[in-house]
Structures are given as C-alpha cells and as structure tokens.
Description:
Layout: H1 25-38, H2 40-43, H3 52-82, H4 87-106, H5 108-115, H6 119-128, H7 136-143, H8 152-179, E1 185-187, E2 190-192, H9 196-202, H10 208-224, H11 226-246, H12 252-257, H13 264-276, H14 278-292, E3 297-298, H15 316-326, H16 332-343, E4 347-348, E5 360-363, E6 369-372, H17 379-401, H18 404-407, H19 411-414, H20 416-432, H21 436-472, H22 479-493, E7 498-499, H23 521-538, H24 544-552, H25 560-566, H26 575-593
Parallel strand pairs: 3-7, 4-6
Antiparallel strand pairs: 1-2, 5-6
Amino acid sequence: MSETKTRDQIDDKYKWDLSVLYASDDDWEKDFQKAEKEYSQLLSYRGSLADPRKLEEFMPLYTDLSSVEENLCVYAIVRFFEDTGNTTYEEMKGRIELLISKIATDTVFIKKELSSLTNENIDAMLTNKPQMEEYRFFLESYARYSPHILSEETETVLAELGIVIGKLDDIFSAYNDNNIKFEEFEHNGEKIHLSHARYSQILESPDRELRTKTFNYYYRPFQQNIDVLANTYAAHVLANIKLTKIRNYPSMLDRALFPDYLPSIVFHNLVEVVKENIDVISEFNALKQKELGVSELHFYDNYVPLVKDVDKEYPYQETIELVRSALQPLGSGYIAKYDDTIEARVIDVFESRNKRSGAFSWGSYASRGLVFLNHTGKFSDVSTFAHELGHCLHRDYSIKNQPFIYYQNPIFLAEVASTVNETLLFDHMSKIAESKEEKKFFLYHNMKRIEATFYRQTMFANFEKDIHELAEGGGVLMAKSITDVYRNNLAAYLGEGMIIDDQLSYEWARIPHFYNAFYVYKYATSLSAAIALSVRITAGEKGAIEDYLLFLGAGSHKTPLEILNDAGVDLTEKDAYEVTVRKFQTLLEEFKSL
Length: 594
C-alpha cells in the first residue's frame, strides 16, 4: 500500500483554488478585523427596527455583515479541513466561530424586534417604501414567529442555555465515539477487535457465523449501559418538550415542522404511505432469504450483498465523464454549468495527509459552490461525486438567481438536488451495465438506497414521534419504555420474514441523529421528491427540465412546499411518496426477472 501523499505532492489541478474566497490569509485577516469592528454598527439600531427609515438603513448593513461572516467562516474551516494538523487554520477557525457566536448573542434583539412586526405593519412599511419590497418574505418569515418569541431577556437566557442543552449530544458522542468498549472475541482462530466501522464491514461478510457473533458482541456495551443512555436521551426529549411549551407550540412535532412552513400532513402522509406499503419490504426480505439460502432472515443478514461488487476502478477523469453522461437528461444548460464547475478548480479531489475524511459541498455567496472529496476510485466515490456536484450546482443556481438573504437552500430541500443526481446515476448505470451480474449489482444497490432512506429513516422518524408523544402525555421515559417503543417500530417497519432479535431492540441507543430531533424524516421526503422529479424528467414530461432548473435557482424566496410545487411535486399528497414505492417495485421486478 502506497503512503498517503502530502498536499504539496498532489497536482494543483486536483486541488481547489480558494482565491474565490480570499486571495491570501492576509485578506482574510483584513475582513476579520473589519467584521469584528463594524458589527457594532448593528447595535445602534436596537429598539428602532419598527421604524421603516431605520429598517431601510439596517438591512444592507445586516446582509453585508452576514455575507462577510459566511465568507470568513467558509475559508477558515475548509482550509483547516485540507490539513487538520495545520494550527494556523485551526486558530482561524476558532476565532471566526467565537466571533460569530458573540455577534449572535449581542444581536439577539434583531429576532425579537423583527418578529414583533405584524403583516399589517409590513404591508404599510412596504407601501411607503416600495424599494424594500424584496425584503417582504424575509420580514414575514420573522413575523410568523411572533407567538413563539419571548422577551429579549428570556431569549438571551435561552441562547445561553442552548450550549448546556447541546451537551447532551456531546455526552452521547463522547460515549459512542470515544469511550465505548467492545469486547474482543475470537473467530476461526482470529481475534476480532470491533469498532463502529468494523461492525458495518462485517455485516457485509458472507460468513454468517462471524456476522452473528459480531451482532451479539456489538450490542453488549449498549445493553450494559442502557440506563445511562436512556437517561441521556430522555433528558434530550424532555428538554425539547419543555422548550416547546415555553415557546407556545402545540407539540414538538409542530415545533420541528414550523421553520420549514410544513403542515403536519407532510409528515403523516410519509408515515402512512410507508406503513401501507411494507409488503414491498416483505417481498424484498423473501428475495434476500432465497438468494442467501438461509432458513430465517435476521437483521445481521440484511447487509450481505446479493451480488458481487463490480470489480472496476473508476479513475477521477472517468468519473467526471460517467456522471456527465448520467446527467444528460437535465439538459444542455445544466451540463454547461457542470462543465464550468469542473474547469473552475472548485473541487478538492484526492486524499492527502491529515485531510479530513468524507465528502461535502459548501461555499459562500461571495464565491461559488465548493466540493470536498477523498476519491479512491470505488463506485461509491462515483456516487459521492454525483451527489456533491448536485449540492454544488444547486448552490450556484441559487447564487445566480437570488439575493443573499434568499440564496441559502432550506434544509428541507437541501438533499433533493444531490439525490436527483444519484437517482439519475443509478438508473444510467443499470442501463449501460455490461453483464447481467453488473446490472443486478446496480439494481440491488438502488433498492438498498430506497430501503435505507425511505423505509428505515421513516421508521426512525416515527419512533421519535412516538417517544415525544409518550413524554408529552406524561409517560415515563426509561430504558424499558424507550426500548419497548423502538421494538414496536421494528415490528411495524421491518416487514414479514425479518426476525427481530432482542439485541436489535436496543438499536435506538446508538443512533446519533436522535439528538437532532425530527431531522431524519427529511432524508425520506428528499428521496421521494428527487425520485418524483427524476421520473418527470426522464419521461420527457413537458416543462419538467425548466421546472427543475427553476427549483435549483429558487433558494428560499418562497416556502419549501411552494418551491417544490412549482417543480411539479406536492408533498401534501400521498402520490408524492407512492412514486417511490412504485420505483422500488419496478426495481425489484426487474432484478427478479434477470
């Protein structure tokens, strides 16, 4: 195995050029000093934001400072991720994070004063000052929070307490990432040292005895510490509920949906459609059981590939061309933007010493989208490339079409464009497969994506709903009650033919996403929206490409549901989710026919 290269050993054409953010560290420092000095100008507007004249003066200062903050933050953090051993960028990252935190604390009055404006106030203000019309949706988005915003003093206290409440996630992470102790065990004369990553790898092993042992040993530390983990999670849930009451929301679910303007029907439709179509998972379970040749299907059998991995290497240049071909249905305009992004040196491609692991896309309004990779040539890297380019171009379309205050894509929509790209890639790979086995490989992994994202994430979301409703109704959250609720969800969502071993009932205790309440359902809604959009596009439906490009450029200038509706997807209707079920059924039938 060759030694990992240092960053200076990698050709510049495979490294991003961050001069799109700052030409040098000195330029960053100048902007930092400017932001540190000039944010005090915002403080002079305390108590005056209901005055149209003052608000007109305030908004350009506010947006300019926010844009500079974003640029400073992105530059420092991505520089640090290039080389996590570089203390210069580690310090810059810490400095800008502290400054942003200080500015947020000192300017908490902004949220209070803007949320005090009524829609009537805003109408009157914009009638007198029509040049401020572009701020209407921004101001109305604050006004709708009026029933949920407290006094400035209380808001300041809650902002400070947020750090304390966030420690519950830190406690879980400290245990799960650093302090968990897995017992060593022996298999066929080899000592097995477990870790989270090793567990995932072994669950794909063809050795069933090894999988069974691994499954049993993996859950032991969670079972042994279940009371501590239950109390930690219960404290998180109870804090959520207390804040929900303080802020005058009917329930934690309503509070979680509120920032995205979502009616609860969006969440409930998702849950209902998944539960109504568990028979597809049952059929998939039967296929797995047959292909694996086992008398009973257990969860530790669920990740064994039914088809051998495609023994191919995908060099970076080939990856670019492959994804480019897959995205052709999006039209020449999108492809031109794709090509421009490849040429612009905004992609950091290869692993290097001390480089952060994983992949992401980020950027700032003052620059453009950036893509961070660790490409090794596996097909998963091709899928990751398509995914992150989806994020990147989504950002660039929004920058081109929206002012700063509306260019950020709401989290509810953030995964849609990236998932459209992945969906088109998998469909393309199935079509160009050179053998039956290769075709089955891509069909199988496409099904696993839907199983993991649509079915499993919805199960997680329903568990969160059940747990919060239990606590809201006065129920006691302890190890037994939480575990019982989780087991009921396993029984409802895993389908017929899947044996639910006792260990799996404790799975809730290892899921970090549960410390970010009601986030996981967005993975399922994003996949559903992406599949619905891709079906419109690949079917050649009139206006589908144009609608999709408008979606990419919409940013957050409307509510997320309005933006999706404009693109032809209505998540308040069950059909938006049923299209995902139909996709799964089609893939399953095609796989079985080969």
